[in-house]
Structure formats: structure tokens, C-alpha cells
Amino acid sequence: SVGDVVALEPFVTDGAGYVEDQQKVYILRYLYDRPVRLRMARELLRDVKRAYDGLPFAERWLAKKMSKLRLELTLRELVGVGALLPYHVLAERAGGKVAQAEHTVIVTEDGCEVTTR
């Protein structure tokens, strides 16, 4: 309906056409405040909530906040308690190459307005 914002993400592949979640996670999103044991996890959750306001963010954007190991442990805890949503890397099941594009559109009275070019 008018005013809706829609993300279109077509994929093409030379493989079987099926994707599977991999173990790797590089993109996350704040979901909820949750009680966490580690102080650094509480602080990171507060910072992520404030900086990204529920939008997805890349793990690498947080690299300056703490060491790689601490960041991995902290993110694992926050995902584990349901404070952050992980977006797993997708791989083509048969090992095929995959290409992806993305556009975001806003539905208008006259059709839509593409906001990404």
C-alpha cells in the first residue's frame, strides 16, 4: 500500500538455485534489550541500539571498540540471549556462483520511487 518501503533483492546463480545458511555471520541487527552478564556486552548493546536504531550493521563497524576476540565473544553472547539477530552468510547449495543486486522502493500513489541507484 502507499507509503510502504520494500527491499527487492534478486539473486542469480549458475548452480542449482538453492541457498543454505552458513555458520559465518557478518551482519547483525538490534532486536531487544536483554539482561546480559558481561559489562562489555551491556555497553556494546547500548551503543548498537543508539547508533543503528534497529537497522542492520556490519560486525567490522564495531572493530575499533574492542579486540577481535572480545568482539566475537560479546556478539555471541548478545545473539545467544536474543538481543541481536544474526544474518548468516548464504551460500549456493551446489557451490555455484551467486550474484545479487538490491533496490529499495517506496510505494507511491503513481507507482513507486526507487531510493537506491
TrEMBL record:
Coiled coil: none annotated. One of its GO terms (cellular component) is cytoplasm. Gene3D superfamilies: Creatinase/methionine aminopeptidase superfamily (3.90.230.10), Winged helix-like DNA-binding domain superfamily/Winged helix DNA-binding domain (1.10.10.10). One of its GO terms (molecular function) is metalloexopeptidase activity. GO terms for biological process: proteolysis. SUPFAM superfamilies: Creatinase/aminopeptidase, Winged helix' DNA-binding domain. Keywords: Aminopeptidase, Hydrolase, Protease. The keyword Isomerase does not apply. PANTHER family: METHIONINE AMINOPEPTIDASE 2. This is Peptidase M24 domain-containing protein. It comes from marine sediment metagenome.
